[in-house]
Specification:
- It is a single chain.
- The protein is an alpha/beta fold and 222 residues long.
- The chain contains 9 helices and 8 strands.
- The strands form 2 sheets. It has a 5-stranded parallel beta sheet with strand order 2-6-1-7-8.
- A hairpin with a 2-residue loop joins strand 3 and strand 4.
- The two termini are 16 Å apart.
- Bound molecules: cytidine-5'-monophosphate.
- It comes from Kushneria konosiri.
- It catalyses: CMP + ATP = CDP + ADP; dCMP + ATP = dCDP + ADP.
- One of its GO terms (biological process) is nucleobase-containing small molecule interconversion.
- Its EC number is 2.7.4.25.
Length: 222
């Protein structure tokens, strides 16, 4: 991998998606939403009535995933087999299934090369759980974004409300904690900061503050 990569990892709801998109836009770099690949694998499996415990079938779903990312004026439409599933992959159920699917070694291996293909000049902002530890271990800048579970539940609550959906704060908090535990305790590529990652706690920071910090770190390292 020759292109510059900024790896942005952290638990769900820490703001990685928004922050990564804004940094990529500012720099004019490519963007990898690696969580979308796990969500797409889960969605494709759900549509085929495949159980989230069927490792062998899930690995082939991941390997054969027919997905395209279509970027238009700062937004990316995610297409599964030619159908726009950008909204479908964001619901809590698909998210929960994605985190089950993501614990399967064969699925992670199947998605590895696909993720590395995103690293192209002038550079890539890669958003996920293991960008700095597994997928792009040579990335010159690695960020670990966190926020308290309560704050992440609140943000998710607001996001859902804006999308016209409703979920109770306490159930969101429970789901977030369950997903954190699953992501951190799994044996393959558990969620943890890379040794050379810079941790940014976003609980009390605004989005522009976080973007500015990352860009300042990039100019120091680059
Ligand atoms: O980030 P997002 O919530 O879209 O990711 C969905 C799920 O995919 C996460 O809960 C996590 O289990 C998994 N994931 C992963 N490795 C990544 C990105 C996401 O295991 N690099």
């Amino acid at each position: 991998i020759n292109a510059a990569v900024i790896a942005i990892d952290g638990p769900g709801g820490a703001g990685k998606g928004t922050i990564s998109r804004l940094v990529a836009q500012d720099l004019g770099w490519h963007l990898l939403d690696s969580g979308a690949l796990y969500r797409l694998t889960a969605l494709a499996a759900l549509r085929r009535d495949i159980e989230m415990t069927d490792d062998v079938a899930l690995e082939s779903v991941a390997r054969e995933l027919d997905v395209t990312f279509v970027s238009e004026d700062g937004h990316t439409r995610i297409m599964l087999e030619g159908e726009d599933v950008s909204a479908d992959i964001r619901n809590e159920h698909v998210g929960g299934c994605a985190s089950q699917v993501a614990a399967i070694t064969g699925v992670r291996d199947a998605l590895l090369a696909r993720q590395r293909e995103f690293a192209k000049t002038p550079g890539l902002v890669a958003d996920g759980r293991d960008m700095g530890t597994v997928v792009f271990p040579e990335a010159p800048l690695k960020i670990f974004l966190t926020a308290s579970a309560e704050e992440r539940a609140r943000r998710r609550h607001d996001q859902l409300r804006q999308a016209g959906q409703h979920a109770s704060l306490s159930s969101l908090l429970k789901e977030i904690e369950a997903r954190d535990a699953r992501d951190m305790q799994r044996t393959v590529a558990p969620l943890r900061p890379a040794e050379d990652a810079v941790t940014i706690d976003t609980t009390e920071l605004s989005i522009p503050d976080v973007v500015a910090r990352i860009e300042a770190l990039l100019s120091l390292r680059g």
